[in-house]
């Protein structure tokens, strides 16, 4: 008799007091089918892709609980669009348990879309194929870019109807992360007056996810400091690659500094520092250029939840360090994108001048940075492949002259510089129109585009001629796409 694909799944979160979660029997999808399985990631975890693709594996991925295990939905609260929303919780996500890979790393495995939970509020506990494909592709695209993120193991689909703006079909995404702990888990305890709960949850996080901090003189302060540092680095990663999250509520912020909860995300096409990727974000709170400061606002909310454990003046001092951490991390990434080996004081101005010109001309963000590796420093070189991206050619010429001088001031081999730039400036990102094409085909039962995108986005820095169509300018219809919180 074959063993179940997830026969050994301990539930670490269940060691917390019952007020932190609810046990939930999932509602499996009827007539499930495997939309896509992330074979490479499954093998990385030490799971057998062939077993997962068999009927009992697909049943699990579609919402059937492992034998002897009852999944958990966790309780959290949060600020949504800057307003305290009270209790939220896992309204359509169920924690199966943990899996230890061959390297000894523990991973939480979660089903998103497996039915109602006590925290579903007015929702139906389901996810739709459209949003599931977007999350599945983008979490793996972000992982391919080297940015901390939750991961995606599989999508299971079903003909079951789900009602959103229109009638759609149901799906379940199997999500994987070292932890799904959010800022909102701590806010939940603090705002309910459960100071002991904040301590219990902080001890849990230290024990399982930050063991190196347990011996600190002030481990709770060290925990907050580490979350601040990770969040600053994550924001630098997002800004450097042109990623917009779209809904940075505190309940969508990871304690581990992971990109989490892919909904109305978007990668920049034409560069617009004020770009709003979420159609529901009417005030532009989560615009691309606002993300680093929103993260700091969210960190203030998290720090407030730690007031029972850390003196206020220490929390304020930790928060004051965020801006320098972010700016240092972001500048380091911009120097790498520009191909600069040395750090000089005027690099900030050089990068800012470029971004201002790109913003004014709505220059395609990904294409510009990828082409920049081919910048020719020879006398008289016009660099037309870059220059022609700008409506205002003179703006580019003025910046290019400064950039040329800066490159020539270093003794770096041009070939080495080009290789280093191509290693940080991706050729491929998950533009919205690419995801939309995959979704439209999947609705007709053709999942080949999901598979092709997965193969491409796993190696976004490589020159792969077979995927050159993914590196092209977006079509005109891409400008009409709209994504919202239901995406």
Automatic annotation (TrEMBL):
Q: Where does ATP bind?
A: 89, 91-92, 112, 124-125, 175, 182, 261
What are the binding positions for Mg(2+) in this chain? 252, 261
Report the superkingdom from the record. Answer: Bacteria
Which InterPro entries does UniProt cross-reference here?
SelO
GO molecular function, one example? ATP binding
Required co-factors: Mg(2+); Mn(2+)
Signal peptide boundaries? none
Catalyses:
L-threonyl-[protein] + ATP = 3-O-(5'-adenylyl)-L-threonyl-[protein] + diphosphate; L-seryl-[protein] + UTP = O-(5'-uridylyl)-L-seryl-[protein] + diphosphate; L-histidyl-[protein] + UTP = N(tele)-(5'-uridylyl)-L-histidyl-[protein] + diphosphate; L-tyrosyl-[protein] + UTP = O-(5'-uridylyl)-L-tyrosyl-[protein] + diphosphate
Q: Give yes or no: UniProt keyword ATP-binding.
A: yes
Query: Which residues fall in a coiled-coil region?
Result: none
UniProt enzyme class: transferase
Cite the EC number. Answer: 2.7.7.-, 2.7.7.108
Q: Where is the active site?
A: 251 (proton acceptor)
Entry keywords, A to Z = ATP-binding, Magnesium, Manganese, Metal-binding, Nucleotide-binding, Nucleotidyltransferase, Transferase
Q: Name one Pfam family in it.
A: SelO
Q: Which family does it belong to?
A: Belongs to the SELO family.
Q: What does this protein do?
A: Nucleotidyltransferase involved in the post-translational modification of proteins. It can catalyze the addition of adenosine monophosphate (AMP) or uridine monophosphate (UMP) to a protein, resulting in modifications known as AMPylation and UMPylation.
Q: Which PANTHER family match?
A: PROTEIN ADENYLYLTRANSFERASE SELO, MITOCHONDRIAL (PTHR32057:SF14)
- This chain belongs to which protein, by name? Protein nucleotidyltransferase YdiU
Q: What is the lineage of its organism?
A: Bacteria, Pseudomonadati, Pseudomonadota, Betaproteobacteria, Neisseriales
């Amino acid at each position: 008799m074959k063993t179940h694909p997830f026969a050994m799944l301990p539930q670490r979160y269940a060691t917390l007091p019952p007020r932190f979660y609810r046990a939930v029997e999932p509602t499996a999808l009827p007539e499930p089918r495997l939309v896509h399985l992330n074979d490479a990631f499954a093998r990385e975890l030490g799971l057998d892709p062939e077993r997962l693709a068999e009927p009992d594996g697909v049943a699990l991925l579609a919402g059937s609980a492992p034998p002897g295990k009852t999944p958990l939905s966790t309780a959290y609260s949060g600020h949504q669009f800057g307003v305290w929303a009270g209790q939220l919780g896992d309204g359509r996500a169920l924690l199966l348990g943990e899996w230890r890979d061959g390297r000894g790393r523990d991973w939480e495995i979660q089903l998103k879309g497996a039915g109602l939970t006590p925290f579903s509020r007015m929702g139906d506990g389901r996810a739709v194929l459209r949003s599931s494909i977007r999350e599945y592709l983008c979490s793996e695209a972000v992982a391919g870019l080297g940015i901390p993120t939750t991961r995606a193991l599989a999508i299971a689909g079903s003909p079951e109807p789900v009602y959103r703006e229109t009638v759609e079909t149901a799906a379940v995404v199997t999500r994987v992360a070292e932890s799904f702990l959010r800022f909102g888990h701590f806010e939940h305890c603090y705002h309910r007056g459960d100071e002991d709960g904040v301590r219990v949850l902080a001890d849990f996080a230290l024990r399982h996810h930050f063991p190196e901090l347990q011996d600190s003189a002030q481990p709770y302060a060290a925990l907050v400091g580490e979350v601040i540092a990770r969040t600053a680095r994550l924001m630098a990663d997002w800004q450097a690659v042109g990623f917009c999250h779209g809904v940075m509520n505190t309940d969508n912020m990871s304690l581990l500094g992971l990109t989490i909860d892919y909904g109305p995300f978007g990668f920049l096409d034409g560069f617009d520092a004020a770009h709003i990727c979420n159609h529901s974000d009417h005030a532009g709170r989560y615009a691309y250029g606002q993300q680093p400061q929103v993260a700091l606002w969210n960190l203030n909310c998290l720090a407030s939840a730690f007031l029972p454990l850390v003196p206020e003046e220490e929390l304020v001092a930790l928060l004051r360090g965020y801006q320098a951490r972010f700016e240092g991390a972001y500048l380091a990434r911009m120097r790498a994108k520009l191909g600069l080996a040395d750090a000089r004081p005027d690099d900030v101005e050089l990068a800012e001048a470029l971004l201002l010109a790109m913003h004014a001309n709505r220059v395609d963000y990904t294409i510009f940075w990828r082409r920049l590796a081919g910048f020719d420093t020879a006398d008289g070189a016009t660099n037309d492949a870059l220059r022609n991206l700008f409506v205002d050619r003179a703006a580019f010429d003025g910046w290019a002259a400064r950039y040329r001088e800066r490159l020539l001031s270093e003794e770096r081999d041009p070939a080495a510089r080009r290789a280093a730039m191509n290693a940080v400036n991706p050729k491929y990102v998950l533009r919205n129109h690419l995801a939309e094409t995959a979704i439209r085909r999947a609705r007709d039962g053709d999942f080949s585009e999901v598979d092709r995108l997965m193969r491409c986005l796993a190696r976004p820095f490589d020159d792969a001629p077979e995927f050159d169509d993914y590196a092209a300018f977006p079509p005109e219809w891409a400008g009409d796409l709209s994504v919202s919180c239901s995406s």
